[in-house]
Amino acid sequence: MAQFHALCKECDLKVTHQRVEIFRALLQTIDHPTAEEVFKRIRDKLPTISIDTVYRTLALFEEHNLIARVQCLSDKGRFDPNMDKHHHFICMQCKKICDFYWEAFDTLTLPPEVAAFGTVILEKVELRGICAACKKNNAR
């Protein structure tokens, strides 16, 4: 949370109680929650908070690179507070998102023709498949 406070100061963002609780809810999980899931997790602590405030706060955090949005197979964005260089495995069945690190990929040089598309800002791998739990359940 100290890093969150420092980043907010660096971005000239007010550190409000609502923003702290929203960010804390993201940090306390590894499941890449939707805005609705964040809302459900914090509304007991902040009964007057609205879903709109959660959406706007997550968008603000994303705009300032405090979090990243992960597009899943549904129309709902999921949010990731892990801003370290990492990649995602997304289960096509249960929609679970798992982080993984791939140093070999991170050191690859992009093909020269990519420069014709524009400037690359972020390199991420997104693997889609069936997670071990779903595969086990399907086998039953």
Low-confidence stretches: none
Helix content: 25-40%
Mean pLDDT: 93
Q: Biggest sheet, open or closed, and with what strands and sense?
A: 3 strands, mixed
Spatial strand sequence of the major β-sheet: 4-3-5
Q: Element order, helices and strands?
A: HHHHEEEEHEH
Shape: globular
How many DSSP-defined strands?
A: 5
Return the structural class: alpha+beta
Number of helical regions: 6
Question: Your description of this structure?
Answer:
By secondary structure, this protein is α+β, with helices and mostly antiparallel strands. 38% of the residues lie in helices and 15% in strands. The protein contains six helices and five strands. It has helices at 2-10, 17-27, 35-42, 51-63, 103-106, 132-139; strands at residues 68-71, 77-80, 87-91, 97-100, 126-129. The chain has a three-stranded mixed beta sheet with strand order 4-3-5, with no helix packed on it. Strand 3 and strand 4 (97-100) form a beta hairpin. Helix 2 crosses helix 3. The chain is globular and about 45 Å long. The chain starts with a helix and ends with a helix.
Keywords summarizing the entry:
140 residues; alpha+beta; three-stranded mixed sheet; two-stranded antiparallel sheet
In short:
This protein has about 140 residues and is α+β, with helices and mostly antiparallel strands.
Can you lay out the helices and strands and say which pair or pack?
Blueprint: H1 2-10, H2 17-27, H3 35-42, H4 51-63, E1 68-71, E2 77-80, E3 87-91, E4 97-100, H5 103-106, E5 126-129, H6 132-139
Parallel strand pairs: 3-5
Antiparallel strand pairs: 1-2, 3-4
